[in-house]
Design a protein that fits this description.
By secondary structure, the chain is mainly β. The protein contains 1 helix and 8 strands, in the order E-E-E-E-E-E-E-E-H. It has one helix spanning 90-100; strands at 2-4, 7-8, 13-14, 18-22, 27-31, 46-50, 53-67, 72-85. Strands 1-4-5 form a 3-stranded antiparallel β-sheet, with no helix packed on it. The longest helix has 11 residues, at 90-100. The radius of gyration is 18 Å and the shape is globular. The model has no long low-confidence stretch (mean pLDDT 84).
């Protein structure tokens, strides 16, 4: 079982964290997200795991933290889709490096799909 994000009510923070539960040993494990940018913390979102990927869709994200001095905070309705891949391949990591380091395609013999 996987749980992503949610609101920590003691300080009203929306956490972009992913946890995995192993029912055989009754232990929760915090997973490390790797990639360009992970999904933002949110609540009231939908998610499903299919094969080696978790899909996270929509939800409410905090754009202004609640402040007692101001007396309000602000939430934003997210209309996005995030895919978390649990089975990276070398081709995926190469594509990530091309994007992260903004490598120019013309200088290298990169495959077209990268």
């Amino acid at each position: 079982m996987y749980i992503f994000a949610g609101c920590r009510h003691r300080d009203d923070q929306y956490l972009p964290e992913l946890f995995e539960y192993d029912p055989e040993i009754s232990v929760w494990h915090k997973m490390q997200l790797f990639g360009l940018k992970g999904p933002t913390g949110r609540q009231r979102h939908c998610g499903v795991v299919v094969g080696d990927c978790a899909y996270i869709f929509c939800g409410l994200a905090q754009i202004i933290s609640y402040s007692e001095m101001l007396g309000f905070g602000c939430l934003l309705e997210m209309c996005d889709l995030n895919v978390l891949n649990f089975n990276w391949k070398l081709k995926d990591l190469a594509a990530l490096a091309v994007l992260r380091y903004q490598l120019p395609r013309s200088n290298y013999n990169l495959p077209l799909e990268l």
